[in-house]
């Protein structure tokens, strides 16, 4: 069996493109260009230039802008004629924009570090991003004390900065365990991070917690074991989900084929009305993904 190579999504080189040659893939509402977000982008570009290049592709011989509409609009207002762009190898305008989310804390940290390495002072960044200087310094130092593996796990997650405060109190291995636990549970709140920190043993922490003398260490250990057990059970359920949905889809298709036979339907209505009602409910489901809980209950009556 021949191996399939994973091809890169972008060209290696940054292209300098005339702004007038860019065609937007979506309309920008006029009110958006009057909002605070756009004003911050204007100030940022004026102070430090473009940090993250817009993404374009070629369609019908023209440059189609996939991502970066506000940045390009700001460049036009500021009188720029050229812009550096990343070239996408495919026309993924729909899926690309669908999956673009706001910048995570880790990604924002990396952009600030990159700008400072290029010689931009924290004061200029603060002015460009409409932050105070202390906030810029805090974002710059976000990953100090965080191991690389934990940072990578949380790279694209929208997380409160307080979460990293608790992670820094843990040793690297415990940071990774905490990052996986938060990801598996879909919970990135500071309260959850604090509970993981409190449930950690002293050997998992940088500095032991000054625990109350009334704290039952045996109960704390049991709590940690329960959290680990729940994490394992959740992972098993997550792994089985895809298989269950596939099986239920096959069940639905089979029952639908049975209902195509009027004689079978007539027999069920007359002799097995309860089974008929359950089968009818399954056939009428519009979406396996949105109604799989109901389908599981009906398929196992």
Overview of the structural elements:
The structure is a single chain. The chain is α/β, with parallel strands linked by helices and 301 residues long. Helices cover 56% and strands 8% of the residues. The chain contains 14 helices and five strands. The chain has helices spanning 36-48, 69-77, 93-99, 105-117, 122-129, 133-140, 148-153, 161-167, 172-185, 190-198, 217-258, 262-271, 273-283, 288-299; strands spanning 15-18, 22-24, 55-59, 62-67, 82-87. A five-stranded mixed sheet has the order 1-5-3-4-2. Strand 3 and strand 4 form a beta hairpin. The longest helix is centred in the last third of the chain and has 42 residues, at 217-258.
In short:
By secondary structure, the chain is of the alpha/beta class. The protein has helices at 36-48, 69-77, 93-99, 105-117, 122-129, 133-140, 148-153, 161-167, 172-185, 190-198, 217-258, 262-271, 273-283, 288-299; strands spanning 15-18, 22-24, 55-59, 62-67, 82-87.
Which blocks of ≥5 consecutive residues have pLDDT under 50? 1-10, 93-101, 290-301
Q: End-to-end distance, in Å?
A: 43 Å
Strand content: 5-15%
Outline the biggest β-sheet: 5 strands, mixed
Q: Largest sheet, order of strands side by side?
A: 1-5-3-4-2
* SSE class: alpha/beta
**What proportion of the residues is helical, as a percent range?**
55-70%
Number of strands: 5
Radius of gyration computed on alpha carbons = 27 Å
Give the topology string: H per helix, E per strand: EEHEEHEHHHHHHHHHHHH
- What integer is the average pLDDT? 78
Principal-axis shape equals flat
How many H/I helical runs? 14
């Amino acid at each position: 069996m021949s191996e399939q190579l994973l091809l890169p999504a972008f060209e290696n080189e940054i292209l300098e493109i005339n702004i007038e040659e860019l065609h937007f893939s979506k309309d920008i509402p006029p009110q958006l260009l009057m909002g605070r977000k756009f004003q911050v982008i204007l100030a940022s570009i004026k102070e430090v230039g473009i940090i993250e290049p817009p993404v374009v592709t070629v369609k019908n011989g023209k440059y189609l802008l996939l991502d970066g509409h506000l940045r390009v609009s700001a460049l036009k207002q500021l009188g720029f004629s050229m812009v550096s762009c990343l070239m996408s190898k495919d026309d993924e305008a729909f899926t690309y924009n669908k999956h673009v989310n706001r910048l995570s804390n880790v990604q924002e940290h990396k952009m600030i570090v990159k700008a400072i390495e290029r010689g931009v002072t924290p004061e200029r960044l603060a002015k460009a991003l409409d932050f105070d200087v202390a906030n810029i310094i805090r974002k710059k130092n976000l990953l100090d004390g965080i191991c690389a593996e934990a940072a990578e796990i949380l790279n694209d997650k929208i997380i409160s900065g307080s979460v990293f405060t608790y992670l820094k109190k843990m040793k690297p291995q415990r940071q990774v365990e905490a990052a996986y636990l938060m990801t598996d549970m879909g919970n990135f709140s500071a309260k959850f991070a604090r509970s993981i920190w409190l449930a950690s043993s002293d050997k998992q922490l940088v500095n032991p917690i000054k625990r109350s003398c009334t704290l039952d260490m045996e109960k704390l250990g049991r709590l940690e074991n329960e959290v680990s057990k729940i994490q394992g059970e959740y992972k098993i359920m997550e792994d089985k989900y895809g298989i269950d949905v596939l099986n239920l889809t096959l069940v639905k298709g089979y029952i639908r084929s049975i209902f195509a036979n009027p004689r079978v339907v007539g027999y069920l209505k007359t002799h097995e009305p309860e089974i008929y009602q359950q089968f009818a409910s399954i056939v009428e489901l519009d979406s396996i993904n949105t109604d799989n809980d109901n389908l599981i209950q009906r398929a196992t009556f």
